[in-house]
Amino acid sequence: MDERGKVLVVMEFLPSDLSRLIAARKVPFFAPQLKIMMCQILDGVRFLHDNGVMHRDLKLANILTNKGNRLKICDFGLSRWENGSGSYTPGMVTQWYRAPEILMGETNYTSAVDMWSVGCIMAELVLRKVLFPGNSGIQQLSLIHSSSAARCKRCDVLLRLCLVQPDLICCSAFLPWIPTAGSLPTMPSNTLGFLSYEHNTLYIFLLE
C-alpha cells in the first residue's frame, strides 16, 4: 500500500499474450498445444467463478504467456463480484467476445458471459482468426445468428427490425427472442458446421 492508501499489486512479468502469439505464428497449433492452453484458460476462469468473480473482458490480448507456454489471465479493470440481484453495467466485454444478451443491452446476466468469451477464444485459437468480427453490435448479432444452430424465425425478424431501427437493440422487450449465453442448450457436435471439416474435427477433439 502506498502513501495515498492505494493497494499496488506486483506480478511477475510475462512478455507476450495470445493475440501476439497467433499473429507471429505461421502454422496452426497442434491439438495437444491447444488442449494445454484451453485447460489453463478454463482452470483460471473456473477459479474466478468459484470465488464469485466475473472477468467480463476475456480475450486473447488479456491472456498473457511466456516461453514455457504458461498462461495467465490479466486486466481485471471490468471485473465485478457476482451479486445477488444479478444486475450489472451493460455493454461490457470487447465486442467480438461479447455474449448475445450483452449485445442486446441486458443488465441482468451471469458468469455465463465469460464462458461465451472462452468459446470465442477457443475458436480463434483453432481458426487463427476472430470467430465473429462484427463492426457493430447489430452486425455482431447477425454473425452469431447466422452461425448458430439456435436460429429461429423470431430472431430473423428481430435482426431485420434492428437493421431498420437500431434503437431496438437496447429494447428489453426483444431480449426473450434471442438465445443467450446462459440459455443455449447443449448442442450435438455436428452443429459446428460453420467451421471447415478439418477445424470442426479438431474443435470436437478439444471439446472432448
How would you describe this protein?
By secondary structure, the protein is mostly helical. It has one domain: Transferase(Phosphotransferase) domain 1 (Transferase(Phosphotransferase), domain 1), CATH 1.10.510. Helices cover 39% and strands 6% of the residues. The protein is built from seven helices and five strands. The strands form two sheets. Strands 1-3-4 form a three-stranded antiparallel β-sheet. Strands 2-5 form a two-stranded antiparallel sheet. Helix 2 runs antiparallel to helix 4 and helix 5 runs antiparallel to helix 6. The protein is globular.
Unreliable spans: 163-180, 194-200
Counting structural domains, the number is: 1
Distance between the termini: 45 Å
Helical region count? 7
In which order are the strands of the major sheet placed? 1-3-4
What structural class do helix, strand and pairing data support?
A: mainly alpha
Name of the top-level CATH class? Mainly Alpha
